[in-house]
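Narrative of activities, Objective 1.

The group set out to show that a structural description can be obtained from nothing but a protein's sequence at a throughput compatible with the screening campaign. Below is one input-output pair from the validation batch, recorded exactly as produced.
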Amino acid sequence: MLCAASRRTASVTSNSPPIPVRYALGMSSGDVRWGVVGEPGREPVVLLHGTPFSSYVWRGVARGLAGTGRYRVFVWDMPGYGASEKAAGQDVSLAAQGRVFTELLAHWGLDEPLVVAHDFGGAVSLRARLLHGARYRALALVDPVALAPWGSPSFRLLGRHAEVFEQLPPALHRALAREYVSSASGPGLHPAVLDRLVEPWLGEDGQPAFYRQIAQADQAHTDEIQERYGEIGIPVLVCWGEADGWIPIAKGRELADRIPGARFVPIAGAGHLVQEDAPAELTGALLEFLGGVA
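Output recorded for this entry:
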């Protein structure tokens, strides 16, 4: 049964308008666009997106959290993603994103925010804490990339031959990107949502950026930290879509077992992109967890 705070967010849907990422900040891996929703002075929550997504996937959840009046919610597009800078030779690896996230928290002046991270963003948040000294009050991980092995055969193929795929005719690239992104959803994405998720990966800058981020997604960056998850030392929630076709739910249970005191919450009917498949259920789980952090 949903708690009272969860019931207030039951109308959260994937039709929510995006959170504007209107602010730009020069970082070590390029300009970062970010945005915020919620009243100043409220408890800060930072949301991290995964790959090949952007802060757009958090729009409904961000408004659901901010709408309680308790939270001020920060979203950002990682370098190489969404509305942030995309450039040839850009370092968009997990190692780079962990450093950028640490820099961004310092810029915002957030000493111990609540952090919610999805997919690749989960690895970014874990690296920032374990390797760069980033401090959080609590951490919620949603279908994160965190444990070996990861990366499907198709993902590895694209990464090994990124320079070849970059040269695909635009129409073929668009079809590939749409199929790839749509496979992250269990029940399927609304066509308008799929268009928004794919759009940043199109055009002269977007197409090479799509393959660049895959080529630089090296499992070594999670191998480096996965034996240290027992050191996290803060409240942790692990949420997982029961129908995740990208990372099996068994990985979620294994991750929760590695983190002392972590709570594991499966989300029925959701694929890997839980924010789109079950936004109300995810928001409810997050509100219950964040509201209980002392």
